[in-house]
Design brief:
The chain is an alpha+beta fold. The protein has a single domain, classed as Cytochrome p450. A 5-stranded mixed β-sheet has the order 1-2-8-5-3. Strands 4-10-9 form a 3-stranded antiparallel β-sheet. Strand 1 and strand 2 form a beta hairpin. Helix 12 crosses helix 14 and helix 14 packs across helix 16. Bound molecules: protoporphyrin IX containing FE. The site of protoporphyrin IX containing FE (HEM) has 25 residues, from helix 8, helix 12 and helix 16.
Length: 439
């Protein structure tokens, strides 16, 4: 059996604190200079920026360009898809370093360093194989379908009660967040997740998700470490409980793999962090984005309310294409590669703007139109492509389809009562608040 070992410290070292601010200032200076010199990507770093005009500006430069931020970037569907499927690209350098994980301002990438998301074959093949059986669409529906439906109905009752007492409610904190957290908690096997635990997990997920785009202060660094500490304590408790009393669930499967040498303890912990952070924020944002897209296009909302069971799946898929809750990912060249007319040297990083690829006019007809009955065209890139294709896609779809179907059935008069609140960060994309009235 592998001996568990600590894989993170839960408060920053003095050295990390001392080096953070100069690094933040350097990053800001490079970004500001790049923006002045007309690099579209540098303009994206400003909070609240609409990314789509920037993606258009990028595509006007051609399918691939070298950003002043020091890496290559693409908003072309074809190039994103090609790189994701090309085994000459990986998620680590040829020396095995996870891209950007040595950047003090971006500790979130190091957090899942030992999970499949940041592993190249053969490690990726081994760790993904352990978890895959638990994520098949059929298994998801039969295992979690009823609970997702019941949980969503209960939360909508609560949303209605809140709206009745105060006249308004927040679709994110009263519905999308608790639904997504409860589903991930269910997947991980946490029993009886009360409101306080939902709040804590949501907070940890938000802090860690925002850190993907880089920290802005020492306070954020401390909050990040504290959030990781909180999650790891929860997971270690869960490991102990399942070791004492195994169940037919994902954690027991992962633990068994650790105990027979199929996973290291760090890989086990990293995988749990990935499932929680990668699974909850992205799905809650998907529900928030879908509601905003639908209410912003009233004729589409009307169509959905007329046939919720038939159109909910299309509404989810079109939202994933049009307004993805995960905007981008990274790959690193493992050899010199000729790509879209450029030579990409070994160990260079390419930023793949999946959200830009989803609006590429080369492959999607009228790409800036939101249409829940859209047909034709290739699959969107929002769940990635190739060997790292999102393992949680069936679960995210099932959850979001249930949420939209029930919302449309129960509250056809749903409308916004104010502007949505912006969410920190660029990579995970969705509203922090969506104030709504139900009648
Ligand atoms: C709307 C919701 C979601 C979106 C947009 C999303 C997006 C993605 C993307 C783009 C990747 C590939 C990243 C890359 O290639 O670098 C990925 C991988 C992954 N996702 Fe998701 N995801 C979502 C929900 C979930 C959920 C609910 C779970 C699990 C509970 C999950 C678990 C994973 C895992 C384990 C991987 C790693 C797969 C691998 O590296 O082989 N995701 N996701």
């Amino acid at each position: 059996m592998n001996t568990p070992k600590a894989s993170a410290t839960y408060s920053p070292t003095l050295r990390q604190e001392a080096l953070l601010l100069p690094r933040i200032l350097l990053n800001r200076a490079v970004t500001a200079l790049g923006a002045r010199l007309g690099d579209p990507l540098c303009r994206m770093q400003r909070p609240g920026t609409d990314p789509y005009p920037i993606y258009r500006a990028m595509r006007e430069r051609g399918p691939l360009y070298r950003s002043r931020l020091g890496y290559w970037a693409t908003g072309s569907y074809a190039v994103c898809d090609e790189v994701l499927r090309d085994s000459r690209f990986g998620v680590r350098t040829t020396e095995g370093v996870v891209t950007f994980s040595d950047d003090l301002t971006r500790p979130a990438l190091g957090l899942v360093r030992e999970s499949m998301l940041k592993q190249d074959p053969p490690d990726h093949t081994r760790t993904r194989r352990v978890a895959t059986p638990a994520f098949r669409r059929g298994d998801m529906v039969s295992r979690y379908g009823v609970t997702i439906e019941t949980t969503a109905r209960e939360l909508l009752d609560r949303l209605a009660a809140r709206a009745a007492s105060s006249g308004r409610a927040d679709l994110i904190s009263d519905f999308a967040t608790p639904l997504s957290v409860k589903v991930i908690a269910l997947l991980l096997g946490l029993d009886a997740v009360d409101e306080a635990t939902v709040g804590r997990l949501a907070h940890c997920g938000m802090v860690i998700g925002a850190a993907l785009d880089g920290l802005g202060s020492r306070r954020e660094l401390r909050e990040f470490h504290a959030a990781v500490g909180e999650l790891d304590t929860l997971f270690e408790g869960l490991f102990a409980a399942r070791a004492a009393e195994p169940r037919d669930d994902l954690i027991t499967t992962l633990l068994a793999a650790r105990d027979t040498g199929g996973l290291s303890h760090d890989e086990l912990l990293s995988s749990c962090r990935l499932l929680l952070v990668g699974g909850y924020e992205t799905t809650a944002s998907l529900i928030g984005n879908a509601v905003l897209c639908l209410l912003g296009n009233p004729e589409q909302w009307k169509q959905l309310t007329a046939a919720p069971a038939e159109l909910a799946a299309g509404a989810v898929d079109e939202t994933l294409r049009y307004e993805p809750s995960l905007q981008a990912t990274l790959r690193t060249a493992h050899t010199d590669v000729d790509l879209a007319g450029h030579r990409i040297p070994t160990n260079s990083t390419v930023l793949l703007l999946l959200a830009a690829g989803n609006r590429d006019p080369e492959v999607f007809t009228d790409p800036d139109r939101y249409d829940i009955t859209r047909t034709g065209g290739p699959d969107h890139l929002t769940f990635g492509s190739g060997i790292h294709y999102c393992l949680g896609a069936p679960l995210a779809r099932l959850e979001a389809e249930t949420a939209l179907r029930l919302l449309a059935e129960r509250f056809p008069a749903l409308h916004l009562t104010g502007p949505p609140g912006p969410r920190p960060g660029v990579t995970v994309h969705g509203p922090a608040t969506v104030p709504v009235a139900l009648k």
